[in-house]
């Protein structure tokens, strides 16, 4: 099996590349970036820069892992609407085939599976990592969607 790790290299520049980030200011800016990333649950591997720009290296896998939520897709031949009140369900989207749930962890998926077994035919039961778009919308707000 292949091992994949996706890194994002971001570069922030001062306006018009003006060399404004002298050592003291640059250190404060980098500390602010580190604290902000930690507060938002973004895994920042490194941050560095020069007088006119700052580099940040983040891991997408760590962002997904630190998000703390999973998506659960269920297609069934019976009504799944009652799952909206299930402990650990944070978002619900009904579809023509069934329901898409955002849940707080894998143990919730197991509890839901135990709940629906025997209630009817389940065509699909898939636990997925959230997309980066899901995470962005949750962190930044739906106005960007």
State the main characteristics.
7 strands; three-stranded antiparallel β-sheet; 4 helices; elongated; Alpha-Beta Plaits; alpha+beta; single chain
Task: Please give the structural blueprint.
Layout: E1 7-13, H1 23-40, E2 44-50, E3 53-59, H2 60-67, E4 70-76, E5 89-94, E6 98-103, H3 106-116, E7 122-128, H4 132-140
Antiparallel strand pairs: 1-3, 2-3, 4-6, 4-7, 5-6
What does this protein look like?
The chain is α+β, with helices and mostly antiparallel strands and 145 residues long. It has two domains: 7-64, Transposase IS200-like (Alpha-Beta Plaits), CATH 3.30.70.1290; 68-144, Alpha-Beta Plaits, CATH 3.30.70. It is 32% helix and 32% strand. It has four helices and seven strands. It has helices spanning 23-40, 60-67, 106-116, 132-140, and strands spanning 7-13, 44-50, 53-59, 70-76, 89-94, 98-103, 122-128. The strands form two sheets. The chain has a four-stranded antiparallel β-sheet with strand order 5-6-4-7, covered by helices on one side. It has a three-stranded antiparallel β-sheet with strand order 1-3-2. The chain is elongated. The two termini are 35 Å apart. The mean pLDDT is 88.
């Amino acid at each position: 099996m292949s091992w994949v790790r996706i890194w994002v290299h971001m570069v922030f520049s001062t306006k018009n590349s003006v060399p404004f980030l002298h050592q003291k200011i640059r250190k404060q800016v980098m500390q602010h970036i580190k604290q902000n990333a930690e507060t938002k649950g973004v895994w920042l591997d490194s941050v560095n820069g020069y007088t006119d720009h700052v580099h940040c290296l983040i891991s997408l896998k760590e962002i997904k892992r630190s998000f703390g939520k999973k998506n659960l897709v269920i297609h069934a031949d019976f009504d799944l609407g009652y799952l909206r009140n299930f402990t650990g369900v944070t978002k619900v989207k009904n579809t023509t085939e069934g329901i898409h749930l955002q849940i707080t962890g894998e143990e919730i998926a197991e509890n839901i599976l135990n709940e629906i077994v025997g209630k009817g035919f389940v065509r699909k039961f898939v636990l997925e990592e959230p997309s980066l778009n899901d995470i962005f919308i949750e962190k930044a707000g739906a106005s960007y969607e």
